[in-house]
Design a protein that fits this description.
Length: 328
């Protein structure tokens, strides 16, 4: 369930006027911006952007970028983007880090549906005039260059999205994985082929067979070198794609468990990782953030609202709490 609180039929013209007023004069009215954009869904925000540009011959996003700053500006602008555009921007930021943030790349490529990922790739190419695969291949580090095929494969393949499973294939490919791990050929192209091309249900069957045969999940065998970014990328990919422990109830989906872990790690580390917190909240507020909040509380004995309020401040805090469902 979404945490976003949005009216049914707001006027995009009135919203555009309110945002224009908030950005005019001496100083910016951040509260007015939160009041409008913090309570609009994706379709409503798209209409606001269209109305704003028609009325003022100006891109609303560019105006927001010039008026706001810091984590608040980043959160508001990410939220205002269409979902596919947002993911494209997140991927670009992750790729162009001094050390590319493979976890964001894998998170988006594995968690989004095949249709959503295709839309993200189209948005990326439109925004940056390069393909996502091209930029990713050019920016991998020395260690992750071994994983370049893995990462490019993750974003490049259109996976089958059905529920059918081939049991015989799952058995044979679990043996292929086991042999590659036993021979310590962890960048074997068969590992990359299996992880990047098989549907999620098929991979679940393969990894479950591996676990049944070896008595432990495959991620436990991908730890030969704890400093290897490539092995970390493999483990992250597997954990994003499927749950190595047990099926949870729908409310405890693998996706939600993954995002809860991202939030907990981001909030609990010394100096909150605002980028990770922002990413989870703005990408899930219209989808399943209510369930994520419930599970966060069960696992941490503190509400996500309280954790965010404790480790953020100012307009950035107010905006995140609005997306988390806090009533004005």
């Amino acid at each position: 369930m979404a945490t976003l609180i949005a009216p049914d039929h707001p006027s995009p013209v009135a919203d555009a006027e309110a945002l224009r007023k908030a950005c005019q004069g001496w100083g910016t009215d951040e509260k007015a911006i939160i009041l409008v954009l913090g309570h609009r869904n994706a379709i409503q925000k798209k209409l606001i952007r269209q109305a704003y540009e028609e009325m003022y011959q100006e891109d609303l996003l560019k105006r927001l970028e010039s008026e706001l700053s810091g984590n608040f500006e980043k959160a508001v602008c990410q939220w205002t983007l269409e979902p596919a555009e947002r993911d494209a921007v997140l991927l670009k930021d992750a790729i162009t880090h001094t050390i590319p943030d493979y976890s964001v790349i894998i998170e988006i490529s594995c968690i989004r549906s095949p249709q959503e990922l295709l839309a993200v790739k189209n948005a990326y190419q439109h925004l940056f005039k390069h393909s996502l695969e091209e930029d990713l291949a050019a920016r991998t580090t020395a260690d992750l260059r071994k994983a370049s095929k893995l990462l490019v494969g993750m974003v490049g393949v259109h996976r089958y999205d059905g529920d059918e499973i081939n049991g015989r294939l799952a058995t044979s490919e679990s043996l292929i994985l086991g042999n590659a791990i036993n021979d310590k050929v962890l960048n074997h192209e068969d590992i990359i082929r299996i992880l990047t091309t098989r549907s999620k249900p098929q991979l679940m069957a393969t990894l479950n067979h591996y676990k049944d045969h070896h008595g432990t999940s495959i991620t436990k065998h991908l730890v030969d070198d704890p400093t290897s970014e490539y092995l970390a990328a493999l483990r992250t990919a597997i954990r994003c794609i499927t749950n190595p422990i047990k099926y949870y109830e729908k409310v405890n989906s693998t996706l939600q468990r993954k995002l809860i872990t991202v939030l907990r790690n981001a909030i609990n580390r010394p100096g909150t990782s605002e980028d990770a917190v922002t990413r989870v909240i703005v990408t899930r507020a219209e989808k399943d953030l209510e369930e994520i909040k419930e599970q966060y509380y069960k696992r941490n004995s503190v509400t996500l609202d309280h954790a965010v309020a404790k480790d953020t401040s100012g307009d950035y805090k107010a905006f995140l709490l609005t997306l988390l469902g806090k009533h004005d």
